[in-house]
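Lecture 7 notes: from sequence to structure.

We start with a single chain of 175 residues. Read the sequence below before looking at the structure.
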Amino acid sequence: MIYKKGKQWKKLLSAVIIGIVLGWLCNDWLHFPNGSNLYVLIALIFFVGIQLRNNGISLKEVLLNKQGLMMGAIFTLSSLIGGVISAFFLSMPITQGLAFSSGFGWYSLSSVVLTNAWGPIQGSIAFFNDLSREILSLFLIPLFMQHYRSTAIGITGATALDCTLPIIQNQVELK
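Now the structure, written as tokens:
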């Protein structure tokens, strides 16, 4: 059995499609104040902390987790190596390949930084690159979680802290 939950991928795909359609339909009248997403992320991280503590996981265990630190180092290094290899095959400067791969799925940061550094085209590439990583990870987490837990978490990058966290939690029991 690949998926812990039988029709998980259908629910995820439906949520993505509904979100796209609602965003498109409500674009003219649904506007949030600038910076409001920061408060939502702060609340989300706050509740993650509460959930960790309720499961008996201390802050020390989170910050001094050898497996987590090793996994982060491996996925950081592999993303950067992937950026260098991509730069070679796409005939672009290595610095740009490294810049595109160093977003680690954090599209709201990397796209702005690269837009300011190299212009809107590179910023758009960074945005699409990181957004694609997040969307793909939504569907790959259930596939990898059963046998390759570290890979399932590592492919999510920065989104393991927010968007993909509920999917990760749904696929694995906390130890």
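DSSP finds nine helices and no strands in the chain. Keep this in mind for problem set 3.
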